[in-house]
Predict the 3D structure of the following.
Amino acid sequence: MKTVNIMIVGVGGQGSLLASKLLGHLLVSEGFDVKVSEVHGMSQRGGSVVTYVRYGDKVFSPLVSEGEADYIISFEKLEAARHASMLKIGGQIIVNTQQIDPMPVINGATEYPADILDELKAKNIKIDAIDALSLARKAGSVKAVNIVLMGRLSNYFPFEKSLWLKAIEETVAAKFIEMNKKAFLLGREN
């Protein structure tokens, strides 16, 4: 099996590391060789955070090169645009429609780009946009955006829903399992 390359991109505090842990756990349990690499920007200050997850029969490096990502899961629209060059031709971006203003926008030095997703679509990039924040609220916590996005991602993989739910049980703190399962299902089914 060829190596599948996944990037999880967002800003600090959005739970991208838990998302990569969940995904990695599922893939290892299915017998794949998995490499996960976490690249922290100014994550403690709301800066960009990138996690690479690569799996296949044998994976030699944890990093994804430009133009090689099969999937990009973006926790925010601007992060999707920032990392779009990493996507391979025919790849898929799953993006939360939430807007999180970066520091230059907060400071008034620049404006948040309008029509980001339309611009990506105009470049023939496949976009699967989801209001993950609203679904996370519906599940019980805005912090579940990451798991909503994993639910949406699960539609692109051949693994049974039960395997994903088992991975949630095995990677999430016990008191948050049911809420995260609900978030996953909302992302998968909406």
In short: The chain has one domain: 4-189. DSSP finds eight helices and six strands in the chain.
